[in-house]
Amino acid sequence: MTTFGFGLSFGAPKFVDLGGRRLAYDEVTPQNPQGTLLLLSGLGSKRFGWGRQLPVFGQHYRTIAMDHRDVGDSDPFEEPYTMHDQADDAAALLRALGVEGAHVAGISMGGMVALNLAQRHPQLVRSLILVATSAGGRTHVGPTAEAAAVLRPDPGQEIGERAQNTYRIICRPGHFDSRPEEAELVAQLARYKPMRSAAYLRQYEAARGHDVTTHLQDIRAPSLVIHGDLDPLVPVGNGRMLAQRLPGARLHEYPGIGHMPIMECPDEFNRDVLEFLGTLDDQSKENA
Fold first, then answer.
1. E strands, the chain, where?
2. Does residue 185 belong to any structural domain of this protein?
3. Residue 93's closest CA among 10, 26, 1, 192?
4. Ordered alpha helix ranges (H), 59-122
C-alpha cells in the first residue's frame, strides 16, 4: 500500500506485459460496472494524479489509471517514441485486460494520447473526455512565457520542489496559498519513483510532435472537452478549437481555473464527467 496526502492510498500496482515490457496500472471496479473508463495522465505525471477521481468513478465504472511507458511503475523505455506509440500502448493495455471498448479521459498530454487512440483504434473508444489538451499542429495555442519555462525544468533542482514550483505556475493564481498540504502532496507524488531527465525529454519530444488536426472530423466518439479559462500551459483556445472541430463535442469551461481541473475543482469535474457518461448510458439504453 502506498499512501500520500489527502488520504490518497494505492495498493500494489498491477501490470500488463507487452512483449516483455510492463505497463503499470491501478483499477477500481464496482460489483456491476456500467462500462470501463481509462484515465491517462499528463506530461511527467503518474497515475496517482487521478487519486481524487479513481475511487469516485470506480463506484460506477471499471476505472483504470495507467502509467505511461518510462514513468512511475511502468518499465523504462530507452528509445525515442511518438504519441502514436503511446496510444498503441493504451490500446494494448485495454486489449490485454479484455476491454472491447472504453470511455477514455486524458489530461494535457494524456488528452493527446486519447485523441491518437481514438484516431488509430476507434473501435476501442466509446467516448472521450479531453481535459486541458490540444489537437497540436498549427492550430495549437502556445503557453505563456512563464508556463513555457516549466516545460524545460532545471535538472539540478530537487524534484519535489520542482513539481511544487511547476504546479504553482500552471494552476490558478493563489491555489496553494491556503493549501500547504496539497503542495506537499504534489511533492510526494513527484518523489515517488522520480522520472529521469532523459525519460522526461523523450516524453516531451513525443508531445511536441503531436498533431491530429486533420483527423478531428473523422473521430466519431462522443466527446466532452473540459478546460479552465485561466490555463497558462495549454490555453483555453485549444479546448475551444477541439469543441468546434470534433463532431458533436460538448465544451465545459471552468471560470477561474488553470491547467489542473482534476485537482483545482475535483468535485465539479467528477460531477460533470459522471453526468456526461450517464447521458451516454441513457442513450445506449434507449437505442437498445
1. 2-3, 9-10, 14-18, 21-28, 36-40, 62-66, 102-107, 125-131, 223-228, 250-254
2. no
3. 26
4. 83-96, 109-120
Residue 175 lies in a domain: no
Whether residue 11 has pLDDT greater than 60: yes
3-state helix, strand, coil in the chain (%, to 5): 45, 20, 40
**pLDDT digits over 82-126, tens only?**
999 999 999 999 999 999 999 999 999 999 999 999 999 999 999
Partners of 125 in the β-ladder: 102
Average pLDDT over residues 15-32: 96
The pTM is what?
0.95
Taking each helix axis from N to C terminus, what angle separates 159-170 and 180-191, rounded to the nearest 10 degrees? 130
Please state the φ and ψ torsions of residue 75, each to the nearest 5 degrees.
Answer: -70, 150
Give the number of domains in the chain.
1
Is 71 among the domain residues?
yes
* Rounded distance between C-alpha atoms, residue 50 and residue 10, angstroms: 11
User: Which contiguous run of DSSP H or E holds residue 52?
Assistant: none
Specify the pLDDT at position 8. Answer: 62
d(CA 134, CA 142): 10
Give Cα 258 distance to the centre of its chain: 15
Q: What is the distance between the alpha carbons of residues 150 and 277, in angstroms, rounded to a whole number?
A: 33
Give the mean pLDDT of 153-159.
86
Residue 110 domain boundaries: 2-143+198-287
CA distance 24 to 74: 5
| 87 domain-assigned | yes
Distance in angstroms (rounded) separating the CA atoms of residues 86 and 91: 9
Longest dimension (CA), the chain: 57
What CATH number is associated with residue 108? 3.40.50.1820
